[in-house]
Design goal:
Layout lengths: L1 H9 L16 E3 L7 E3 L11 E5 L5 E5 L3 H4 L7 E2 L1 E3 L8 E10 L4 H11 L3 E8 L6 E10 L2 H12 L4 E6 L8
Parallel strand pairs: 2-4
Antiparallel strand pairs: 1-6, 3-4, 3-5, 7-9, 7-10, 8-9
Length: 177
């Protein structure tokens, strides 16, 4: 018992990641006033995109992009519900996975991160992914985006950087964080 209490005190205290619940003013469910909604991690919907709700057992409604593979492959269509974006976007924004493929060079990360910072966007996570193509770099990032217009703008700027082959939103990918 004494050994157990010593071990417990020495273990680091890890807090679980917060649920990605949305504010009721952000998402509105047709025919319902107040219901728990969560943004789906598989497709990371952003304000301005077409969305659909999926009724989960015990967790309210999970909001997906309308083109999410999870929703397109869902057989139980009765669990889908119409949802729309409300008035206010959350101040913290939305996590959006972005994949950047480029010719590898000195200063590539600096140019990419500088372009993102100059646009007023935060990088939540970033890593260089292994690729079998010689001379290529694949950067997997998670950006904190406020709207679909902001996402479109930053992808356009990243695609104009020297040596960038393609910068695009990852489709149906979990956040890299």
């Amino acid at each position: 018992s004494r050994l157990r209490s010593i071990l417990i005190r020495k273990l680091p205290q890890v807090t679980p990641p917060p649920e990605r619940t949305s504010d009721p003013s952000v998402i509105s469910v047709r025919g319902v006033d107040r219901v728990l909604t969560r943004l789906a991690r598989c497709c990371n919907p952003v304000v301005g995109e077409p969305i659909v709700g999926f009724i989960t057992r015990g967790k309210g409604i999970t909001v997906h992009r309308a083109d999410c593979r999870t929703i397109l492959n869902e057989r139980d269509r009765a669990r889908l519900v119409e949802v729309t974006w409300g008035e206010a976007a959350p101040k913290q924004g939305y996590q959006v996975p972005v994949r950047i493929e480029a010719w590898d060079r000195v200063g590539l990360w600096r140019d990419v991160s500088g372009t993102i910072a100059d646009a007023g966007i935060n990088i939540d996570a970033g890593e260089q992914v292994q690729t079998r193509r010689p001379g290529r770099a694949v950067l997997a990032t998670t950006l904190r985006i406020q709207s679909i217009a902001q996402l479109t703008s930053i992808l356009d700027k990243l695609n104009r950087l020297p040596d960038v082959i393609e910068a695009r939103r990852e489709q149906n990918a979990p956040p890299t964080a």
